[in-house]
């Protein structure tokens, strides 16, 4: 339950300027107290232990140590009462459903108007789920079987992380270090991704990953 008074919010984004802008915007509503900021998953977990209680985490998907999806999952385990809202530049068609599956309560793109962001925060704090009208319609159609899932949607969260890293030009060794998994596991993910996307070889995989990564910018 959200306590009386201002809701306590933590912002998790690896760009200091973005954190500052989000903090100023949210506090301008008069309903939110930004009680902490973090630039990584590790920092966010430390904040959770050092400044309780927290009502809402506002989280980006791309973080330097682990994915924002993993942070949402961890927060849900550590404190089921904490709500999470993703504010990200990544395409909501790819990530919004994954956020909800991980335990998040909403997804909004960074290019939306300030008043929309404030509305999203207030809606999530009120116990509701926030998605754009287009994304809500898309999910409803998917549930009704009206639209077949895209091949990218068929990737697991970890496979999607590997796919994105390939698109960033990272080698299997670099991906292994960044995600904390073995090179053999990375190569297994690469094989599964090729099978799911119908790609013949590493060259096609790299091409498609780069093209997809650029479409997310």
Question: Could you describe the 3D structure shown?
Answer:
The structure is a single chain. 53% of the residues lie in helices and 12% in strands. By secondary structure, it is of the alpha/beta class. It folds into 2 domains: 7-143, Response regulator (Rossmann fold, 3-Layer(aba) Sandwich), CATH 3.40.50; 152-215, Arc Repressor Mutant, subunit A, CATH 1.10.10.10. Strand 1 (7-12), helix 1 (16-28) and strand 2 form a beta-alpha-beta unit. The protein is globular. The model has no long low-confidence stretch (mean pLDDT 88).
Task: Please describe the topology of this protein.
Blueprint: E1 7-12, H1 16-28, E2 32-38, H2 41-50, E3 56-59, H3 68-78, E4 83-88, H4 92-102, E5 106-109, H5 114-125, H6 133-143, H7 157-167, H8 172-179, H9 183-197, H10 202-215
Helix pairs in contact: 7-9, 7-10, 8-9
CATH classification class of the largest domain: Alpha Beta
Number of helical stretches of at least 4 residues: 10
Integer count of domains: 2
Classify the beta-strand content into a percent band: 5-15%
| Low-confidence blocks of residues | none
Q: How are the strands ordered across the major sheet?
A: 2-1-3-4-5
The mean pLDDT is 88
Q: How many individual β-strands?
A: 5
Label the CATH architecture of the largest domain: 3-Layer(aba) Sandwich
What gap, in angstroms, lies between the N and C termini?
Answer: 37 Å
What can be said about the biggest beta sheet? 5 strands, parallel
Supply Rg.
18 Å
Percent of residues in helices: 40-55%
Structural class based on helices, strands and sheet pairing? alpha/beta
CATH topology of the largest domain: Rossmann fold
Topology as a string of helices (H) and strands (E): EHEHEHEHEHHHHHH
Let me know the CATH homologous superfamily of the largest domain. Answer: Response regulator
Tell me the overall shape.
Answer: globular
